[in-house]
Amino acid sequence: MRLNRNRLLAAGVLPLLLVAGCGSGDSGGSASPSASSTPGGSASAPSGGATQASDSPLTDLVVKSKGKNGPQVSLKHKPFSVSQTETKVVSPGDGEKVTKAQTLTVDYLVVNGSNGKQLESNYGKSAATLDLAAKGLFPGLVKGLPGQKVGSKVVVAIPPADAFGSNGNSQLGIGPNDTLLFYVDIQKATTPLKSAQGTAVKPKPGLPKVKVTADKPASFTIPKHAAPKKLVVQPLIKGKGAEVKPGQQVTVNYTGVLWRNGKVFDSSIGREPFTFQVGAQPRQVIAGWDKAVQGQPVGSRLLVVVPPDEGYGKKGQGPIKGTDTMVFVVDLLAAS
C-alpha cells in the first residue's frame, strides 16, 4: 500500500520520473499507510561525482529562470547528450552545502535532451521532496545535487546510465539513449533523525505495549480487551523539534500491526523512511495518520491506534479487514 509511483506527479510526493527503479512500471508492492493501494551560470564540481568540463554540452543550454509557466530550458542543438552526470549552476545560493544524507525541498522541471520536450514540472504546485539517501532515487541526482548550496538553481544533465538505464521508459516517452535535464531550485535541506529523540512519556494504561529494537520492526503486546473505537495518539517520546504543521513534508519510520492478532503487516524498517505531505488534498496517507502527526514535535515517537473509519474503512485493504483496528509506532524524523 505504498504511494502509487506510476503517477507522474502528486503534490509533494516523489514522482515516478525521479525514481530509478520504476522504469518498467513498478508500482511498489509493500504495505504502508498511504491513502490508497496505490517528491546562465558558472560551472560546478560538487563532491557527488557530477562535473562540468569547459567543453561540456551544458554550455549550450539556454535557461530562462522566469517564464509564464515557470522556468524554461531550451536546447541550441538536438539531440543533447552527456556521457556522465554534469551540473551547471544557473543561480548560486548562499545557504549550506547539500549532503547525501539530507532530504531536499525543491521545485523542478525535467526536459528530454533528445527532443527538448518538457516531461514534468511541479511549478505552480506543491514543492517536491527528494530524499538523497533513498535507494530508488536516480544516481544522477545523488551525484549532481550534493555539494550545491541551498538557494541555488541548477541544471543536472543525467545520461541513461544514471537514470532509467538502457531500457529507457516508454511510459514517459524516454528512449534508451535519452539524456535527461533536471532544472532544480533547491529551497531547503533537512537532515532527518535516525530515530526518535526526546523525553520519554509514560503511556496511559490499557494501551498496547511497544518494544522498539534498532534495525528491526517493532514488536507489540496487544491488550485482551476490545480495541478503542476512536483514534488514539499516545506520545511515547516527546521530541524537541518544531511541531508538525499542515502542508509540511514529514519523514517517518514506522511499524504497523493488527489489533486482532498483533502481527506486523508493514514496516519501513529495513527499507527506507517514508515521506508524505501532511493535510494534502486528496490525502496521501490514511486519515488517522494525517491527524496523528499534526502538532507533534519532530523527534517524537507516537503510538497510534487507528480504528477502521480512520483507516481503510469497511472495504479494508490487503490483509487489513474492514473491521480491523491498526496499531502503529511512528518516529517523526523530519518535517520541512
List keywords for this structure.
336 residues; mainly beta; Chitinase A, domain 3; 2 domains; seven-stranded antiparallel sheet; six-stranded antiparallel sheet; 2 helices; 17 strands; 4% helix; disordered N terminus
Task: Describe the overall structure.
It is a single chain. With 336 residues, the chain is mainly beta. A hairpin with a 7-residue loop joins β10 (209-211) and β11. The chain starts with 60 loop residues before the first strand and ends with a strand. It is elongated and about 70 Å long. Mean pLDDT is 84; it is low at 1-16, 21-31 and 36-48. Helix content is 4%, strand content 30%. It folds into 2 domains: 16-190, Roll (Chitinase A, domain 3), CATH 3.10.50; 198-335, Chitinase A, domain 3 (Roll), CATH 3.10.50. The longest helix has 7 residues, at 287-293. Strands 9, 12, 13, 14, 15, 16 and 17 form a 7-stranded antiparallel sheet that branches. Strands 3, 4, 5, 6, 7 and 8 form a 6-stranded antiparallel sheet that branches.
Q: How would a crystallographer describe the biggest sheet?
A: 7 strands, antiparallel
Assembly status? single chain
Q: Give the % helix.
A: under 10%
Instruction: Give the integer mean of the pLDDT values.
Output: 84
List the helices and strands and how they pair.
Elements (H helix, E strand, L loop, with lengths): L60 E4 L7 E4 L10 E6 L11 E10 L5 E4 L6 E4 L7 H6 L8 E6 L21 E11 L7 E3 L8 E3 L7 E3 L10 E8 L9 E10 L5 E4 L6 E4 L9 H7 L7 E6 L19 E10 L1
